[in-house]
Amino acid sequence: MAGARQAQQWLLTLLPAFPVLLLVLRLWQLSRQDMSTMLLLVQYVSPLGLLSALLIALVWAFPVVVLAFGVLGRLLRLSAPDRFDPERSLLASGTARTPGWVISAAVALGALTWQLRFLPSLLMLGLWLLALRTRYLHPDQPTRILVVTVALPVAAAVLAYSVLAPAIWTAVQEGELSTAALLAVPPAATLLLTGPIPGWIAPALTHGLAFTVAAVLPVVMGAVFLRVPLLPIAAIEVDPKKAAEAPVSDAVPSPPDRAGLEVVLGSLITVTDTSTIVLDQSGRVRFLPNGQVESQVLCPQAAQVPYSLVSVRGWPVEETALDWMMPRRQMVDPDVRCEGRLPGAG
Asked: Quick one: pLDDT band at residue 245, thresholds 50, 70, 90?
């Protein structure tokens, strides 16, 4: 009894610390391991902006956790019921306490946030959960069990292959074997775990896989989040020869001399009453007097270059359903200042 409760207490203690650790590591990386720069970022970077970036970047992880541990826990309960003790096993405790609507929400969220190449895996996990749940709740209804554990996976596999077959062939021809495997293997694998496994191996296998997922997933989440931009990229046109505060004059101002202008490209930290603070591309913090700033423009984030050439009926395998549902930004010619060049320069 004490084992599962102590594990839950430690988990609830450490779980809130993980996002904080990710945010600190991201700021440490952004500051190029300079403590003064990091403290400056902590002072000015919005906590809401950090949490928003964290949520958008890692929203896919919630379905992974719920579905993976849900499958393993239900497989343990069905295969070795005598070893399924919610008071001693954290995996069993989580399975017994997770309501069905959480599983449904995880499947729906995964359908929206997972890339197309991972959707066959989502289908596989969802059918496994449904089959294991049906066998546990309705052991005296063989017809229902046959439909859910055999007929439904076979029908889903046939439908999936009828849609994915051209993409699988294209992936094989292009040498994208990982993409081909992600599209081809899960539909056929839906028949593998629709029932119990030998009871003597179930505890070791399920707990071993659970520990593996728990160890690998935080590393993957950290690697993904460390690539997420936290500050807006701006190109600032600066005249170093210009005084920070120009003298007041009644004369008509003359056109600015563009010969001495430079473009500072970097992450915009904040704008104070006296300075515009920028973290340039070399990792150096620059305090630009506001009187020297001629203009500034927000540079949009560069679109990620697609790795895969495979698509399913026009849907690239690296895009999510949300990417298709959300309105896309209108393509415009990029501002030359975002390339570090002055307007009109050759």
From this structure: very low
CB 27 within 8 A of CB 41: yes
The percent of the chain in helix, strand and coil, each rounded to the nearest 5, is 60, 10, 30
Res 314: pLDDT: 84
Tally of CB atoms within 10 A around 116: 24
Write the single-letter amino acid at 346: G
Distance of CA 284 to the CA centre of its chain: 28
**Closest by Cα among 164, 173, 78 to 121:** 164
- Alpha carbon distance 296, 224 (integer Å): 30
**How far is 203 from 326, CA to CA, in rounded Å?**
43
φ, ψ for residue 193 (rounded to 5)?
A: -120, 40
Distance, in Å, from the CA atom of 332 to the CA atom of 49, rounded to the nearest integer, reads 26
Residues 224 and 22: beta-carbon distance below 8 Å: no
Tokens of 135: 């066998």
Integer Cα distance of 246 and 179 in angstroms? 60
3-state secondary structure 61-110: HHHHHHHHHHHHHHHHHHHCHHHCCCCCCHHHHHHHHCCHHHHHHHHHHH
Whole-Å CA distances, 316 to 26, 111, 117, 187, 319: 29, 15, 9, 19, 6
What burial letters (b/e) apply to 314-341, b meaning 16+ CB within 10 Å?
ebbbbebbeeeeeeeeeeeeeeebbeee
**What's the confidence (pLDDT) of residue 248?**
44
Mean pLDDT of the chain: 85
- The answer for residues whose C-beta is within 8 angstroms of residue 88's C-beta and 6 or more apart is 1, 3, 4
Structure-block tokens of residue 270: 């904040």
CA proximity to 177, closest of 305, 304, 311, 308:
308
Give residue 272's pLDDT.
86
Residue type, 227: R
| C-alpha closest to that of 263 among 343, 333, 341, 344 | 341
Q: What average pLDDT score do residues 185-193 get?
A: 91
pLDDT over 90 at 183, yes or no: yes
